[in-house]
Design a protein that fits this description.
630 residues; alpha/beta; seven-stranded mixed β-sheet; five-stranded parallel β-sheet; 17 helices; 31% helix; globular; binds coenzyme A; binds adenosine monophosphate
């Protein structure tokens, strides 16, 4: 069946379509139906089925006789090690960790925060939680103590599992002081912490609170899988919204497994036993879905790569990993390829490796620019597939479904809506617009299985952020258009979220930090175009009356403040002092107009602007910083 027929089948009979997909998952009790619409516009899937995510990701493969198959390959150029784990080994390790957590009181519904680098133990911690029905919340290692503290207070975890350190090129990231700082800042205190000691840095444990990863597993019984309801939260993953308070995206267990498993063949065209590599981080949604759950649930081999596309040791690292582990599908963000292309523009290192195993390159996380797509396709000689999704959705909304039908690629478009997704472009009044017309991208409810049913402890915010603006639709926060052939084009965010090196960041969160500087009266952060990272944050600072200190000093302090409060991942390095910010007459800062000036784009003078002269001052300040970039 081609794409059109599959899409139409899912639209005509969603229940039949997803119940059929649900057959590929092991259930303790099969659900009576797929969609539960009684609380519309809040929808849920597979509510009355029961199952366990860890069973599906690990045990069932051992039970089916595939225990010797590789589950995880940890390839770590930053430590110079490669370590392989079979499904049987993974089962033993996860059951042991789960048993130790259970012995310390962790059970179904308890939250556990995981703060770890790219080591297999991060996946094992996720799976051990899933085994017990505990809800994990992984926090990306590039976030600072304050961000971790915010998540601790929101998720109120019973336990935190962390590593002693992470390794970034040229520096060891000391996790333990960050963890200690976060727990000190947070109002909620976990009952205990489990620390995975790495040989690169052994952390000092806090007596009475911290337990050693190996030590605390000694003499405890391994745990079996605990069955949970279909809508039981598998995890909470925090993502950037418009304010400093991140949104806790909730992932329901059954829909998550059913949908991810479906994508492995239909979108990625992978078979069980194949090697699938998502070069991302477990702290992001790509890591949750495609480093951990999807490949494992499907019985494939996943790669946990602890390195960077360049500099570990060079721009040939990706090709070495593909060759050594016979990777069939590589999934990464375009920024990784821009980094490789910058270091090795002619792709000379590609020739040093045997890439014959590779079938397809998938890109997501940010706009895939045509130059990058063309370069990658030309050098690797495989299809380059852009696909579009969000933390909220957990998997692709639009893609080229390689396992159903290889549709023609249109460079600049992540292709077409996936089965189950009714994607529409709406005008401000919520009416669908004609093909080719720019508008807000929305998805007609219900969203398919596995997508967020709500935000953790914040249903009102969920409704306000996603459902209220266009009743009957989910508002994606992206703007774009659909062409005559049904191909989608993602053009921009409609909110204050920016995308830096494939990382989703909130300008609002950075503004909150800058505003806390004693000399700053008012500020604005915008995203400016960057040839490597897609966008970079840039801050405009208005100083309090009477402050006559050196402006460069103040900017330097602000840069340090953002790094300290949000973390290095914010990549906040550009700032300037201005007298005033451009605003509408009602006082709204014209961030979009400022961003257009910084990028050298045409713009229409906003009719409601209070004082157009301020734009000249902004232009001058940008010029001093070298923007628009040549
Ligand atoms: N722990 C601690 N610090 C981290 C970190 C982590 N897990 N990840 C990144 N950082 C730090 C970096 O060391 C850097 O610090 P610096 O300011 O001291 O140099 C800072 O955060 C910014 O990181 P990043 O924006 O990633 O820039 P980079 O220069 O280190 O690397 C790329 C640039 C393009 C190589 C890198 O962004 C990359 O590989 N991206 C791949 C895309 C990706 O994984 N996207 C995820 C969604 S699919
Ligand atoms: P995240 O939740 O971190 O995955 O970020 C989701 C956002 O990243 C989306 O809302 C888009 O703005 C952007 N994004 C993700 N994938 C793509 C893509 N293929 N093309 C353009 N933008 C994308």
């Amino acid at each position: 069946m081609g794409y059109g027929k599959v899409y139409a089948a899912a639209a005509a009979d969603p229940d039949g379509f997803w119940m059929d997909a649900a057959n590929a998952i092991d259930w303790d009790k099969r659900p009576s139906k797929a969609l539960f619409a009684d609380k519309a516009p809040l929808y849920e899937w597979f509510v009355d089925g029961t199952l366990n995510a860890c069973w599906n990701a690990v045990d069932r493969h051992v039970e089916a006789g595939h225990g010797d198959r590789l589950a995880i390959i940890h390839d770590s150029p930053v430590t110079g090690t490669v370590h392989k784990i079979t499904y049987s080994e993974l089962q033993a390790r996860v059951a042991s960790l789960a048993g130790a957590l259970r012995a310390r009181g962790v059970g179904k519904g308890d939250r556990v925060i995981i703060y770890m680098p790219m080591v297999p133990e991060a996946l094992e911690a996720m799976l051990a939680c899933a085994r017990l029905g505990a809800i994990h919340s992984v926090v990306f290692g590039g976030f600072a103590a304050h961000e971790l503290a915010v998540r601790i207070d929101d998720a109120t975890p019973k336990a935190i599992i962390a590593a002693s350190c992470g390794i970034e090129p040229g520096r060891v990231v000391h996790y333990k002081p960050l963890l200690d700082g976060a727990i000190e800042q947070a109002t909620h205190k976990p009952d205990f912490c489990v620390i995975f000691q790495r040989e690169q840095e052994v952390a000092k444990l806090t007596p009475g609170r911290d337990l050693d990863w190996h030590g605390f597993q000694a003499e405890t019984e391994p745990a079996d899988c605990v069955t949970v309801e279909g809508n039981h939260p598998a995890y909470i993953l925090y993502t950037s919204g418009t304010t400093g308070q991140p949104k806790g995206v909730v992932r329901p267990t059954a829909g998550h497994l059913v949908a991810l498993n479906w994508t492995m063949k239909n979108i990625y065209d992978i078979d069980p036993g194949d090697v699938f590599w998502a070069a991302s981080d477990v702290g992001w949604v790509v890591g949750h879905s495609y480093i951990c759950y999807a490949p494992l649930v499907y019985g494939a081999t996943t790669i946990v790569f602890e390195g960077k596309p360049v500099g570990t040791p060079d721009a040939g690292t990706f090709w070495r990993v593909i060759q050594d582990h016979k990777v069939r599908v590589l999934f990464t963000a375009p920024t990784a390829f821009r980094a490789i292309k910058r270091d090795d523009p002619r792709g000379e290192l590609v020739g040093d490796y045997d890439l014959s195993a590779l079938d397809t390159l998938f890109l997501a996380g940010e706009r895939a620019d045509p130059d990058t797509i063309d370069w990658a396709g030309d050098k690797l000689n495989v299809p380059v597939i852009d696909h579009w999704w969000q933390t909220e959705t957990g998997y692709a909304i639009a893609a080229n479904p390689m396992g159903i039908e290889k549709l023609p690629v249109k460079v600049g478009s992540p292709s077409v809506a996936m089965p189950g997704w009714d994607v529409q472009i709406l005008d401000e009044a919520g009416h669908p617009v004609a093909p080719g017309t720019l508008g807000a991208i929305a998805v007609k409810l219900p969203l398919p299985p596995g997508t967020l049913p709500t935000l953790w402890n914040a249903e009102d915010r969920f409704r306000k952020s996603y459902l209220d603006h266009f009743p009957g639709y989910y508002e994606t926060g992206d703007a774009g258009y659909i062409d005559e052939d049904g191909y989608l084009y993602i053009m921009a965010r409609t909110d204050d979220v920016i995308n830096v090196a494939g990382h989703r960041l909130s300008t609002g969160a950075m503004e909150e930090v800058l505003a806390s500087h004693p000399d700053v009266a008012e500020c604005a952060v915008i995203g400016v175009a960057d040839t490597l990272k897609g966008q970079l944050p840039m801050g405009f600072l208005c100083l309090s009356k009477g402050v006559d200190r050196d402006h460069a000093e103040i900017v330097k302090e602000c840069v340090a403040l953002v790094r300290d409060q949000i973390g290095p991942v914010a990549a906040f390095k550009l700032g300037c002092v201005v007298d005033r910010l451009p605003k509408t007459r009602s006082g709204k800062i014209l961030r979009g107009t400022m961003a257009k000036i910084a990028d050298g784009e045409e713009f229409k003078m906003p009719a409601t602007i209070d004082d157009p002269v301020i734009l000249d001052e902004i232009r001058d300040a940008l010029e001093d910083l070298g923007y628009p970039a040549k």
